[in-house]
């Protein structure tokens, strides 16, 4: 009970439920689709003029691509959501690693598969799987995606 108090009172996470957060990113593209190139910049500047192009998206070119960024967003968001739920239940997390595979068919993201490996002290596999399912359903990026979302999770 003390841990739940810490999470929701000291960290003040309960206030996030009624908070509107706004984040942004900017894309600048020059030239045609196949010969042109673009740069992405995020609000935090973690990505600043990061290059992307037809080759980085559809071939093996240098740079990032929108689908890779969606996969990064989904794996990061899910992992934080899972961490919150597991911590709320009173377990100590050593590590959680999540890989996200995005599948595209005919130009549409049709699925996102999360592969999770975690080291968590004292949690049973059943309790872990329950928290994984809850995080999969409630992660804001999961809610954003209009795609089938699946998860394979194991305790390490």
TrEMBL record:
Family matches, as Pfam families: OsmC
GO molecular function terms listed in the Swiss-Prot or TrEMBL record: peroxidase activity
Any one Gene Ontology BP term: response to oxidative stress
InterPro entries found in the cross-reference section: KH_dom-like_a/b (IPR015946), OsmC/Ohr_fam (IPR003718), OsmC/Ohrsf (IPR036102), OsmC_Ohr_Peroxiredoxin (IPR052707), Peroxiredoxin_OsmC (IPR019904)
Signal peptide: none
Superkingdom in the source lineage: Bacteria
UniProt-listed Gene3D superfamilies: 3.30.300.20
Protein name: Osmotically inducible protein OsmC
Record organism: Flavobacterium frigoris
